[in-house]
Design goal:
Blueprint: E1 3-8, H1 19-27, E2 30-33, H2 35-38, E3 46-48, H3 53-66, E4 69-74, E5 93-96, H4 101-109, E6 117-120, H5 128-136, E7 140-143, H6 150-160, E8 165-170, E9 178-183, H7 184-190, E10 198-202, H8 228-238
Parallel strand pairs: 1-4, 1-5, 2-3, 2-4, 6-7
Antiparallel strand pairs: 7-10, 8-9, 8-10
Helix pairs in contact: 6-7
């Protein structure tokens, strides 16, 4: 099996690719990648990756069987939310680093991202991590995809808190780059019909924490009531996941 070099293509435009990445492309016998990425390189043998995940993995393996030097071109940084984690990486595999789309987006927004959460919505319908981001108020980058397209994701965030501030980036670093800022409701109204590759940044908001019933919320009788402090501790010990509710039986109300 031939050597495989996985090249990080950066956020989009070739200007953000490392010289090492360009050298790997030039020295390769065949270059594989998404059609739009292959359009950004000059190479005599380009093979587009299409179809299902298994189809793409098979295409990579077949290329390694036929060619001594295969290059796989992946968007952003190849070690973040990419095909790399689904491949069998051996001693004949090299990964060239690059700039992820959220890193580029952070520079355009003029923010530091070292405390930001990273939430991927690719390939599933589970909203628990997104809801956790909203509940903690941490702020962070959201990667829409599949079921969770840009519009559906923003509408979900709006249903939780319409006052949150955010930004969306579409086709970052490309000639048609779009960056919009404002409240979530304002962003929903300004989404262009052609959404392209998108990313969302939510600015840090209010920390909601775990919810528990306070003494004044119970209908009281002469019966003893569990202590409010106890309910606070129990709610913390249980480490409730977003969306879970607990019914206390025998609180004394």
């Amino acid at each position: 099996m031939g050597r495989l070099t996985i090249v990080s293509a950066g956020p989009g435009t070739p200007v953000y690719r490392l010289p090492e990445a360009e050298a790997a492309i030039r020295q390769s016998d065949v270059v594989l990648g998404r059609p739009s990425l292959l359009d950004t390189i000059d190479h005599p043998y380009r093979l587009p990756l299409t179809g299902s995940l298994q189809d793409m993995i098979q295409t990579v393996n077949d290329a390694r069987e036929k060619h001594p030097r295969t290059t796989l071109l992946l968007s952003g940084d190849a070690t973040f939310l990419s095909l790399t984690k689904h491949l069998a990486l051996d001693e004949e595999t090299e990964v060239v680093p690059g700039i992820s789309s959220f890193q580029y987006f952070a520079t355009r927004l003029r923010i530091c991202w070292d405390q930001a959460a990273l939430v991927s919505l690719h390939g599933h319908t589970d909203a628990s991590k997104l809801l956790n981001l909203l509940e903690t108020g941490q702020g962070g980058f959201i990667f829409p995809g599949g079921y969770w397209n840009l519009t559906r994701t923003l509408e979900f965030v709006s249903s939780y808190n319409q006052k949150l501030q955010g930004a969306i980036g579409i086709d970052l670093s490309l000639p048609g780059e779009i960056i919009l800022k404002g409240s979530i409701n304002e962003l929903i109204k300004t989404i262009p019909p052609q959404q392209g590759l998108s990313i969302i940044y939510l600015y840090p908001g209010q920390i909601n924490g775990s919810r528990y019933l306070k003494d004044g919320e119970f209908i009281r009788t002469n019966s003893p009531l569990s202590k409010e402090e106890t309910r606070m501790i129990v709610a913390g010990v249980m480490r409730l996941a977003p969306g879970l509710q607990v019914l206390e039986i025998g609180a004394g109300s």
